[in-house]
Amino acid sequence: MKFSEMPYQRLDREETEAAMHSLTQRQKEAPGGEEQFEIHREYYKLNDHIRTCRTLAIIRHDINTADEYYEKEQKFYDEVRPVLENLDNEYHKVLWESPYRSYLEEKIGSVAFKNMELDFKAMDEKLIPLMQEENALASRYSKLIASAEISFNGEICNLSRMGKFMSDTNRDVRRQAWKAVSDYFMSITGEIDNIYDEMVKNRTEQARQLGYENYIPLGYCRMHRNSYGQKEVENFRRQVKEYIVPLATKIHENRRKRLGLEKLSYIDNNMFFADGNPEPEGTPEEILAKGQEMYRELSPETREFFDFMMENELLDVLGRKNKVQGGYMDYLPEFESPFIFANFNGTSGDVDVITHECGHAFQGYLVRKEEIQEYLDITMETAEIHSMAMEYFTEKWMEQFFGSRAEDYRLMHLEDGICFVPYGCMVDEFQHIVYEHPELTPAERKDVWKKLEQEYRPHMNYEDDPFFGNGGWWQRQGHIFQNPFYYIDYCLSTVCALQYKMKMDLNYKEAWESYLALCRISARKFYVPMLEEAGLKNPFADGCIQELVEHFEKLVL
After folding, report:
1. Which helix (H) or strand (E) holds 331?
2. Banded model confidence at residue 325, pLDDT cuts 50, 70, 90
3. Is the separation of the CB atoms in 247 and 549 below 8 Å?
């Protein structure tokens, strides 16, 4: 079914709550494990309906934040979601405490029960008002960013449209574009500070009501960190500082030479070549058509997947006024359909959507017939491997998008991927510091960011910009507001994707088979055993990052 034809009706709150109460009670009274699993199948069906209703409403709201109908629907789900999460928790407690748990664990897996344990540690009915307030704050930030109207070059641009001007070959145009974006953020930085200040206080209060010292352990539970903790993340960041930051610094020096500049400035941050970054050739419609041709050639599985996406209009990728910034993939279970949301802006990022978000969507499509929902409940450090590795698997088709500049794109993509990891770790460490010290003022938070930039991005020179130069960059990073502690997952998965890059350079077919196996494992196994089965190394392990750096510095230096 085409996305535009998918019927939407607001979830009946009373009916849904009653259904959850009924399922919970019946689980308590079930005489055996087989009977409990049959009831659990009914839970799957109800959960699919809840998720489909909510996802349809949120996507349609994100497509146009000025649509009053879907704005009301967004607010409804902001309020009802914590209530349903609590009922879901109560339902799963019955499974957790079941005398037939061994039977259930055999059916839905040990990973599922570990995730239940984390959910119990992260939820209590008394938190519902705070969670509703947290959701409202996140929506407030999202709408504020989506509503940006910046007058530039004779047109009114949102932040996504400004991206093209911020990487213009004319340095004066770049400078003016960055200044326009800086001026816009200066006009709203106080409001963003207030939103985040309320968020930090809110999340800290939730944590303390559950008995935690601060929000970090609660955030880890909510991210389903079922295989590692803060200690492992700190060790990962240490290795990034030791090995990847020096490599990234050399890459930036090479960029400076290629650009013919005496010194890099923040306005050159997105620039890789003096004659401009490679840009995709053709209209958005032509880019999608080329993507379809690429996936038809890559494998039988990707051919079926992308044909399905195109036939059912499951990609909304054009940037528009009042459209939420960024991109994502979500899944509509009742229609067995992935959906890709993005904002094309005429840069190479448009092709990245066709590779990155399609990596997510492909994995969702590949396992769409799986009955056991717990096997689909992948954690983000796994999900992002699917997307980031797909960026590399599709590289040999880049001539279709970039013509004679395909090799430039491949070099830019590799350099950008390596240089991203320090930035991603900086975002993660920033959040750890903020939640360890919730008493920090907005100005002190910006000072924390400035200090971290010296450690992770020593090449950055903000000149005298009043917003970016005073520690404001993080206010553009929506994950900090919407999904605390998510960002490290991009760094972990980049390390895994780079391992796939190494593998495919040696034997593309074997690397692809490994990737398909990883996608199909989904959430059946914990993180490290899953990586081992697919033939990948644990990114937390000492030596993994050093080995990657030694390999890739030969390719980029």
Report:
1. strand 328-332
2. confident
3. yes
